[in-house]
Amino acid sequence: MAKRTAKANRIFNRMGAPVEHITDLGLVNYVPHPDNSNYVVFRFPDIERANDFEAALKAQNIWYERDQQQGRTRMFYLFAVKQQHFKAAQKINFSVEAKHRKPMIGVPLFRWLVLLIPIALAVLAIVGYCQRPDLVMPK
After folding, report:
1. Opening angle at CA 72, ends 10 and 18, nearest 5
2. Total domains, the chain
3. Given this model, what pLDDT does residue 36 score?
């Protein structure tokens, strides 16, 4: 493995630092560059997402720097993009994340149950109300 440069260490340490900014909460996969405010650093936890992001950046002729750093538990692939290209890079990021996302409920049967059980309960409540409205709203 290649030795980390001082610049790469600063970027990585910024990402592992305590919460100083809303983006540090893990809600998004990018942070402002720790040394240069003209750059934004995107972080990907797997090589497939990183490669797709890189290919899309190349397709749109967006200049970037790529690096990789070993985290506490996994390898992170880092991309520094100029602030002027942030909106385009963010659209690419969203499309890459959408392409690789997994369903919140992985088993299709459970997914349908989560959808159908509340619908069935609502239908039963409406049918019960229509059959005996006097019990719900006395005269």
Report:
1. 55
2. 2
3. 86
Find out whether 30 and 21 touch, Cβ atoms under 8 Å: no
Residue 110 and residue 84 share a domain: no
For 68, which DSSP code? Answer: E
Q: DSSP states of 42-62 as a string?
A: EEESSHHHHHHHHHHHHHTT-
Residue with tokens 């959808």: 115
- What pTM did the predictor assign? 0.62
Find, among 16, 21, 18, the residue nearest to 4 by Cα. Answer: 16
Residue 69 has pLDDT above 90, yes or no: no
Q: Whole domain around residue 117: which residue ranges? A: 103-139
> Is residue 113 domain-shared with residue 94, that is, in the same domain?
no
